[in-house]
Structure formats: C-alpha cells, structure tokens
Amino acid sequence: MKDKFWGGTIQGPNGVFNDKLTDDDIRLIFGDNWKSRTPTNTQKSSVKRTSSDSLLTFYEKDAEDCVESMLPEMGLTKYVDPETGKDGRQFVCSAGRIDLLCRDRTTDDLVIIELKRGDAADKTLLQLLRYMSWARQNIADGSNVRGIILTERADDSLTGIVEEVPNVTIRYYKFNIELVQCND
What we know:
Elements: H1 23-30, H2 34-37, H3 41-44, H4 60-70, E1 76-78, E2 89-93, E3 96-104, E4 110-120, H5 123-138, E5 145-154, H6 156-162, E6 168-172
C-alpha cells in the first residue's frame, strides 16, 4: 500500500466544483468508480459540476460538530433544558429547530447560533430573530438573548441589515481539508 497526498481545492468560488482537478486527483477523491461519476477529460471543460457532486461535501452535522468543539473558545456552553435534560444542539421549539442554543459562560446570556453553508441571505436574519424571540419569551427568564449567524459568506443585504440590529452578529468560518492517506 502506497501513501498518497492530495492537497487541492475541492470547491471553487460560488460553489462550483474545481474543474482543474486532474484524473489522478479525482481518482483519489472518488475511488475506483470515478469514471462513472465524472466526465471524461474531453468533456470536463464543458461540464460544470457543483460541490454537491463531491463525496466530501460537508453536511450540517459535520459543521455543527466543529462549531460545538469550539464553543469553549467562544466563551459558550450548550444550553441544557432543566426540565427535559435536552441539550441545545438541534433544539426543537415552536419557532423551529435551533442549530445551537448556548449560554455565555461570563454573562449567562442565551446565545443562538444559526449555521449557514455558503452565502447567508437576509432571510437568515428573520429566522434567527424568530428563534431569539421564542427564547426571550420562553426560557430567558430575564437573561439577555443574543444571536450569531455563522456562515462562510454573507450577502451585502444581510450585512447591511445586521449592522442595525442589536444583539445580532455575523461571524465567518471556513473549512480546510487535508487528505493524508489513500488506500489503492
């Protein structure tokens, strides 16, 4: 078995799958059945593939795992419902499903994190405000409620509106992938 290292970009700007990958790169990503999943060399330049074609597409659970592991760095802990013992990850309430419901370790504020993949649009703010309103009315018990939109990118409309909304911020993330071993 020979170790192979691959360090290319899977997803280019605007979610377009990188069309500069070589056949060897694609074989490393998709395995032996790669020809049935991707166009031939002569077809590559004329076919646009989206990031959803990739086996390495990040799913919400993967992103939540990463964010959850960073909560201590952010000064946060997951909220735990005192009645049910349910923690604040994918917290179901009458306003919907909150990605991460947390507490600030210093201020005891409730903090709602809405995680978005790709470009977050201005409708993300409405979703977050709905969750914040529910939390304020049902579980805050006088505590302050803050919201964080955590996204790869935010459109200009969203960033402009969020500047006018108290207790809401936008924070950004990025993922780095390193493939260090591949079995032939």
